[in-house]
């Protein structure tokens, strides 16, 4: 079974990524120098904390084995939890599923 990590972004950002082959860094990603990702149990908290009230979001399921070697690191962040951080670009080829997010609550609807 493939290990997965997750990225929340706008639907429009993912459309641009499909055209260019990689997800452009968000303002937070650019500021911190890595792509912010979440493990499955962290998705709901990330959605509530950083995306409350935003519309047209998608959840990208990212296969860890499709990411460039050595660029994914698990580092302490919110409440001392280890979060996956990608020190590089997120290639669209690593995204194995895109799930539409209905609203700013963690209720997901498959695409």
Q: For the residues shown, what is the average pLDDT?
A: 90
CATH architecture label: Alpha-Beta Barrel
Backbone structural class:
alpha+beta
Principal-axis shape:
globular
User: Termini separation (Å)?
Assistant: 21 Å
CATH domain topology: ADP-ribosylation fold
Task: Tell me the strand order in the biggest sheet.
Answer: 1-4-8-9
Tags for this model:
alpha+beta, 4-stranded antiparallel sheet, 3-stranded antiparallel sheet, 3 helices, 111 residues
SSE inventory with pairings:
Elements: E1 4-10, H1 11-20, E2 22-23, H2 27-32, E3 35-36, H3 43-50, E4 57-63, E5 72-76, E6 82-86, E7 90-91, E8 95-101, E9 108-110
Antiparallel strand pairs: 1-4, 2-7, 3-6, 4-8, 5-6, 8-9
Short description:
The protein is an alpha+beta fold. It has helices at residues 11-20, 27-32, 43-50; strands at 4-10, 22-23, 35-36, 57-63, 72-76, 82-86, 90-91, 95-101, 108-110.
